[in-house]
Amino acid sequence: MWQGRYDQLYIGGQWIKPASDGRIEVISPFTEDALGSVPDGTREDMDRAIAAAREAFDHGPWPRMPLAERKAAVARLGAQFRAHEDTLAELVSTEMGCPITMSKGMQSIGARLLIDSYLEIVDDYPFRSFRRSGTGNALVTREPIGVVAAVVPWNAPQLVTMIKVIPALLAGCTLVLKPAPETPFDAYLLAEMAAAAGFPAGVINIVPAGREIGEYLVTHPSVDKVSFTGSTAAGRRIASLCGQDLRRVSLELGGKSAAIILDDADFDQAVEMLRTASLRNNGQVCSGKTRIVVPERHASELIDRIVALMDSMPIGDPLDPATQIGPLVSKRQRDRVADYLAIGQAEGARIVRGGDRPVGLDRGWFIDPTLFVDVDRKMRIAQEEIFGPVLTVLTYKDDEDAIAIANDSAYGLNGAVFSGDLDRALGVASRIRSGVVELNGNLVGFHAPIGGWKCSGIGREAGLEAFDAYVECRSIGMPREMVDALEK
Q1: 44: which of 19, 285, 300, 459 fits an S-S bond (Cβ 3.0–4.6 Å)?
Q2: How do residues 406-417 score in pLDDT, each as one tens digit?
């Protein structure tokens, strides 16, 4: 098992001693043994990190570099990700329990593919454009917003970090990253890769810390922009704090996404897609389709298929390539999911598979993949994000009823429609109030924007739209002849 201990923080392009002796202990979700520790950042540490980012933005070369030079530095970081793919995958699996086979794609290669995607599209972003009209003529520029506070969760730490950090860097921003206390080791690997990529001092600063210091970061007067991914409850808190100072904020929050299986779908194909759409990363994915919406007259056969799917997924050591379901990230998370299993049964839903610790796994924070049936759409297990390998089956009478069930949620992050008729599927998908909907398991890809409606967030990430979060627009009025000359 990998062991790690770090005694410094990456601030201002250097490894420096933290302000206190406080430590964050990292515990293996599989063995429940200590993996190692890192410094627990303090206000003084955050002050130094923010000051370094502020200096790098206000007086350093990064915001004033040509885009081509920033792209070159980001490409060097991408090369570092390529060189450390296996190490990164193993780190994340060790820290939070993601099965290693999935970790290689989702946690490691996925992060690098995000970097590549942003590099492919950034030249199409209108950092500079001209507007002519009968009422005036303008040069419109999109300028880097300033110092960015990036606060990321534990479930996909580097994937989520790259979805924020890369557009911020390409736009010309500097940043302070606060990784989750459950997964700090991969953030240290990122610091080492950033140093090797040769970013100017202060452009990237990394301080692991808990919630209190996270709040200090997002309310700091020298921070211009906050980008947060996490729970809706935490997002509400951050939005409230940022609102007091009108600080720019974008939020990617929770979900309770619906997978609608229409009566003309290929049931075998649809249920197989749930292996990743609903249960990847041990169910700890905000975009997971955890409400399976099925036609009443086909409910029994679809339930049988879902049970068989869960039965086919090996549970165990996240570093074993055969494992498809690993442990949850922490005891606290396991206890939370176990509470929802009790709540669902108390509400009258019935468990037809799972519902407890897997047989033979008495150590580690495991929950056996669980399927609830006889679920009413108003039950808490159908309305609240559980964040574990727990699915609910809800039945519908017709397409209108299915759409109503899908939309009966405070969330609107993701969704899916399965049908043998793609035009019918598109018609249903177009009425689901969600930022992303996938037809028959087809992913939208990293060139498309993702993000939530309703309580699933504010703003968009990925695609060209991601850059909008890290710029401010400026319009400069000028004579038409000057516009004509500059546009040549």
Answers
A1: 19
A2: 999 999 999 999
